[in-house]
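Lecture notes, unit on protein representations.

Consider one protein chain, 289 amino acids long.
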Amino acid sequence: DGRYRDKFLYPRVQVKILNEQIYLVGIKDGADPVLSITKDFELLNFGNITFNILDVELEENIDQFKHVDQLLRYRFVSPWIALSKNTQNRYKFLKSKDRIAFLNRLLGQNIVFLAREMDIDLNDKVYTKLKLNSLFPKPVYENNWGSFSGEFQTNFVLPNYIGLGNGITRGYGAIHGLYNPQDFKFDEDMLKSDVVDDKPKNTFDEDDTLLCVKVKNVPKPRRKSNSVSNEGKSKVKKVLSEEYEIEEKSVKKKKIKPKKKFQPEKKISKTPVDNNFNTLDYHKKQHDI
């Protein structure tokens, strides 16, 4: 209900509708609430659509959010919104090689932000290697965002179905690990062909598409200020830097009372008023020629 929005920047409970199935993801503080409501699940009402719950499957993972010395593969099962309005303006002027490096850096910042929100002690470096279907972002019109589809590798263990990037509360940026895909049901034949003999490998060699993000160089999230300046300046809620924002700028404008327009002084006629001006005889008198 939003009561923890100022405390947590990353949503602890996430709802995904993927392949006509509903996924409730509870992370850290959100794990117990999700487990508790699944006990008496009969239906889910989303306002414009209601789901009858026929079956519930629970999956608990404890050993998550940690560094490993190998690259693990993940696939985006919903579009990854990497570009905000600001970063999209910068991205469109980059060359192809610079674009993939730019996106790899944003992905690394996504992971660093997530780890910090989970109070995880990070090693010095986070490696990312994107393999996207296209370097041309698909627009998300309501916020002027740019999204991508594809997969990536990183040296960080991430839970299935959590979101990365912008629009997490809308279901964007959901991921699934390809190194352990037995429960993945989106395109089983394709995934089986993808992950045969696909064991995590040490691939920290020189690679143009493998980018290293140094944790110390990633700014920490900025908390939303509760104070409003007298001048009515805009308030900005940023998660990492200008390059990575989960929330767009929220501008609060100060209400300004309109100035009273100058009105010329009305001259009041001192001519005595005929008390019979609204009578028939008066009008006849005025129109006599």
